[in-house]
Design brief:
The chain has 15 helices and 14 strands. With 411 residues, the chain is an alpha/beta fold. 48% of the residues are buried.
Length: 411
Amino acid sequence: MSPAMTDRPFDIVLWGATGFTGRLVAEYLVKHHLDDGLKLALAGRNEKKLEEIRAGLGPKAKDLPLLLGDSFDEEALSSIAQRATVVCTTVGPYAKYGEALVDACVRHGTHYCDLTGETQFIRRMVDRHHEAAKRSGARIVHCCGFDSIPSDLGTWMMQEEMHRRHGVYAKEVRFYAGESKGGFSGGTLASMLNLMEEIRRDPSLRKVVGHPYALNPEGEREGPDGSDPMGVEKDPYVDQWTGPFVMAAINTRVVRRSHALRGYPWGKGFRYSERMTFGSGAKGSVAAAAVAGGMAAFLGAASVEVGRKVLSRLLPPGEGPDAKAREEGFFKIRFVAIADTDAGEVELRGLVVGQNDPGYGETSKMLGEAAVCLAKDPLDSEPGVTTPSVAMGPHLIERLRAAGMTFEVKD
């Protein structure tokens, strides 16, 4: 935290507190951090709804300040950014509603975190704001939810432990999304559909978001990884049938940007991939093929206007599972890191586990803890348009472990 930020009235301003996910983040921060002296304000465009949200947060929240503004009101956003150490936003699709807020935070040296998984939006923020954020001291941290904190922090964890145990970094890290229970986020779907609409208007975007190194710095968008695998295969490292993972298109780009921002300590030949696992038998093969076919059908439907309209009605943004469903959800992600040593090839295996559904329960926890980490922890990372692991690394892992998530490495 810069010295100037210690004088700001709010540690965190939660932008979008009246939305479904925004309310969950507000509940999390009030329950777990308000008693520790966190200076929190709720922000949005509808004062009545903000008052209703505040009233629903219980007696501890009755005096929380309410700030009003609109996603396109530059003056209001500037006023909010000036008064906060961190602006935490749940208002998406970010490609439609997010840039003015990023701009305000960059101009005022205010840290920022969000839940975007929109490659095209992040690329624009990198191109337009990275250098200015470095000058102002703002850490602009995208992808602070299920996409892409488990991927980004998990890969960093595997590399740190490989180096600690064997004195080398892994030449490859493989991510496997395994058992999980939880609904798909309506906000995530809305962002995907908005991307397809953007591609319809500007077909060149398809090449941008499809590039495996889309978020790397200019002049460094090359490496050994190819396009995201969409087929089915029996994976030798886990001895299971695997298929495509829907969030790989953003997670892999974030991990590669993290590596680039660190200066490529794992080597320019480092490889990273993500797959879903479905078991080792015939049922696993069928399930993997069904998911691969379903993803292809979804992408086909989303690429045409009538398909986008139908899909948007299936899971509207702003809605989500009830508390019981969120609490009964979970996710389990396995990592395999492979390295060459003088004694031969070695492997480490890791695990990231969340105890609530990934799209809402654990996502609100991850975003909330990221915001508190940016506001409170003694970070020495370089500012700019950065990533969760580069900006917060060990500080955020420790916070998430304390909050009930598992980050562990085994032989």
